[in-house]
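PROTOCOL LOG
Step 1. Enter all chains and additional molecules of the complex.
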Amino acid sequence: MSFANIYDIAGSSMAAQTTRLNTIASNLANVDSAAASAEEAYKSIKPIFEAVYHGTGVDANPAASVAVTNLTTTLDNADMRFEPNHPLADADGYVAYSNVDPIVEVADMMSATQNFEASVNVMNRARSMQQSLLNLGT
Amino acid sequence: MAINFESALGLHAQALDVRVERTKILAANIANAETPGYQARDIDFKSELAAFESGMDVSRNYDMMFRIPAQLAADGNTVEIGQEQARFAQNSMDFETSLTFLNMKISGLRSAIKGE
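Step 2. Run joint prediction.
Step 3. Record the structure below.
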């Protein structure tokens, strides 16, 4: 009977959601970042989550923690705005802005926050279970 | 009358063990609520305990079952977070209940030993 894994699992989820919140903060901060070309424009960053199983064969642990395996940029194109007087405007008068969609980011942020809180609750609950187990027979 | 601790406490101790293992699985489901392709799993508590009662050697390798989701997600994830949280809460309450029973057993045995 071991509670150690539960803390690892809940902790891995909290870490993953923190990474996600970090990318969201970065995306929202750069929502109005301008660049001279579409290639240079800021692109929204998204973390890729993956379930991680520990052990193999008979010792395989069915409880999977979660890990951020990669950070990718979204494939949407940069937002080209016609601003001929902007110092970064190209020959045709267009400025490349980031492809960040603030609505998507805020929705994502709420989801990440709720998931983080769910894992905090799991951890608290596991702690109180362990506490009462320690008080057994007293 | 000889007191056999194994038979006096056995079932409840086993129940606690299954509860803790189930806590792990449910915690993993909640942790992976947004992992693409993750399939939620669970232990069937009743069948595990029935196996123990029928004298089977129940090791820590409990039978895992995959959850059948009420709604399918586009990314193949089968975790329904509200349901998992409800099961998690229920499971930990059941753990506390088993613990209370175990405590009552122990205090019963203690009074018997002391002859009170």
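Step 4. Note key features.
The two ends of chain A are 20 Å apart (CA to CA).
The mean pLDDT of chain A is 91.
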